[in-house]
């Protein structure tokens, strides 16, 4: 007799630079409007206010290098972000202790069905239909803290077909990594396997089938994703 009534879903995991072992993903938290210029371009006040988060599903993360253009949308945007992967967690984590819970960092894209997200915003509904669709978070491999430290500055750039769309420095994040971890831990019990997408700078824009997105962050390598 088997333990489960259906086959167990596969474990979602990200590759790790320097090893064949993978990082299993438990949850994905995403912070919204964490760069002032992006807050402005989305029509919001960039002043430092209480942060807000939404979630993607673990199996939205994808390392194939391909982004299938999703159905039911004609306005899909790129959002380049650094991801933070946790090796441990807890509740009410102090900012001074937060970085001790980080396993590593990597590159990701928070792909967004902007037209559908906009409809949900106007109706006061959750953003899941615009954010948490299949393969909506292309990712690169994780770089362990033991190799790269804790990047609190560094140039982030996204090009589409060789043309720069987004460019900023990690030090321009309104809420820094320790603050994000601390804030989340006041509302959720964080744990090993949790991933935080740390927000995107200004310059978000639409992509089309055939486009090639190339993202870089100083010290964390590059990520190339083709829209198919």
Explain the overall architecture.
- This protein is of the alpha+beta class and 228 residues long.
- Helices cover 17% and strands 32% of the residues.
- The chain has a single domain, classed as Fumarylacetoacetate hydrolase, domain 2 (Alpha-Beta Complex), CATH 3.90.850.10.
- The strands form 5 sheets. Strands 4-3-15-8-9-12 form a 6-stranded mixed β-sheet. A 5-stranded mixed β-sheet has the order 6-17-16-13-14, with no helix packed on it.
- GO terms for molecular function: acetylpyruvate hydrolase activity; metal ion binding.
- InterPro entries: Fumarylacetoacetase-like_C, Fumarylacetoacetase_C_sf.
Strand arrangement, largest sheet? 4-3-15-8-9-12
- The rough form would be described as globular
The CATH homologous superfamily corresponds to: Fumarylacetoacetase-like, C-terminal domain
User: What is the residue-mean pLDDT, rounded to a whole number?
Assistant: 95
The SS-based structural class is alpha+beta
Q: What is the domain tally?
A: 1
Report the uncertain regions: none
Please identify the oligomeric state. single chain
Keywords: Hydrolase, Metal-binding, Pyruvate
GO molecular function, one term: metal ion binding
Protein name: Fumarylpyruvate hydrolase
InterPro entries: Fumarylacetoacetase-like_C, Fumarylacetoacetase_C_sf
């Amino acid at each position: 007799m088997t333990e489960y009534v259906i086959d167990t879903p596969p474990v979602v995991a990200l590759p790790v630079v320097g090893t064949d072992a993978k990082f299993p993903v438990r949850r994905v938290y995403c912070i919204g409007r964490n760069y002032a210029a992006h807050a402005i371009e989305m029509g919001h006040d960039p002043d430092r206010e209480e942060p807000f988060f939404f979630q993607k599903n673990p199996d939205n993360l994808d390392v194939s290098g391909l982004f299938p253009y999703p159905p039911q949308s004609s306005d899909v945007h790129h959002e380049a972000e650094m991801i933070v992967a946790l090796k441990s967690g807890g509740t009410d984590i102090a900012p001074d202790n937060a970085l001790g819970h980080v396993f590593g960092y990597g590159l990701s894209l928070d792909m967004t069905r902007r037209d559908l997200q906009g409809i949900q915003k106007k109706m006061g509904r959750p953003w899941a239909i615009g954010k948490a669709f299949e393969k909506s978070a292309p990712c690169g491999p994780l770089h362990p803290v033991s190799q790269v430290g804790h990047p609190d500055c560094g140039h982030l750039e996204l090009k589409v077909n060789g043309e720069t769309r987004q460019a900023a420095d990690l030090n321009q994040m309104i809420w820094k990594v320790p603050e994000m971890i601390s804030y989340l831990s006041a509302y959720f019990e964080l744990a090993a396997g949790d991933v935080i997408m740390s927000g995107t700078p200004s310059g978000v824009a639409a992509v089309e089938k055939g486009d090639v997105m190339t993202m870089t962050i100083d010290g964390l390598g590059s990520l190339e994703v083709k829209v198919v």
